[in-house]
Amino acid sequence: MKALVIIKDEIIKNLFKKKYAPLLKNIDLVIKDISFLKSECLSNSDYQLIICDLDGQENEVIQIYQEFKNKFRFVFITDAEYTEYIEHLKNNEISNVFPKGLLIEDYLTSVKLISNLCKNKVFGINHYMEYPIFLETVPLHYSSEMRKLNFKLNFLFPFLKKERLIMLKLAFAEIVSNAFFHSHNIEKGKEAYIKDPIYISFAEDSEKILFSVTDKKGSLNRDIIMYWLSKRLEDDDKLPLEHGRGFFLMKNIIDNLIINIKQDEMTEFIAIFYKSDYMGVKSLIIHQV
Hints:
This protein has helices at 10-23, 39-43, 58-68, 86-90, 100-105, 107-119, 145-156, 162-182, 222-233, 245-253, and strands at 2-6, 28-32, 49-53, 73-78, 97-99, 134-142, 193-204, 208-215, 256-262, 266-274, 283-288. By secondary structure, the chain is of the alpha/beta class. The two termini are 20 Å apart.
C-alpha cells in the first residue's frame, strides 16, 4: 500500500519522515513537494491515500483534489481550524481536515487514522485504539435508556476532571439524541421504542477516551452535515434553535470527530477525547462510501 504526502511545512515533513514512516507498517509513505508533481504522474499512480498540506498551497491542493477526488482518498492537514475552510468543505472542494497539532501530540492515533484510510477500514471504534483498556457495546431500543447511559459515563471515566466530563456527556447526549430521534423521524424528547436499535460503544486506551454511536438508517450524508454546520456557523437568525445545534456542539467539544457513512445503510459517529488537556484545533473526518 502507498500513501502520498504533498507537504510544504518542513517541520511536519520531517515528522512524517522520521516518526510516521517507520510506524506505518506495510504502507509506503512517499513525501513530495507540490512543485515536483504533475497530474499525469498521479493519473497513473496506485496511491490509496493522499495527504495534502493546505497551508501555503491551498489553491494547488484544491485543484489536485478536484481532479482526483474520485480516484483517491484524501486528508488535508493544516494549522488552522477546519471552520476556516467551511465553504470549501461545503462545496466539496476539499475533505477531511486534520490539524497538524494532533499529528504532533497524538501520533499513535494519527498513525491509526492514516492506516485505516489507506486500508479502507474506517468503520468500527476498535480501529482507533492502541491496546484498549476496555471496549463495551450496548444496543439502545428505548429513549428512556439514554439518560441511564449518560449517567454511566460518571462510572466509566471517574478520573476525568469535572469540566471535561461535562463536555464529554454533552457531546454524547447530542450524538445519541440525533441518532435516535432524527434518524428515525421521532419527535425529540418523546418516549419511544425503536425495533432496530442504535449501537453505542465505549472504549479507553492509555491516551484517550472514545465512544461511537451507530444507526442502521444511514439517513445522513456529507452534504447535509456541511449544510447545517455552515448555517449554524453563520449564526443565521432564521435558523430554528435545534437545527445544526448538534453538529455545532460536536465541532466545539470533540477533539477528534470521525463520521462514517454508508448511504441508506449506516451512519457511525466516533468521538475521541484526549485524557490530557488538549487545547489545539479540532479535526473533522467524514468518510462516505
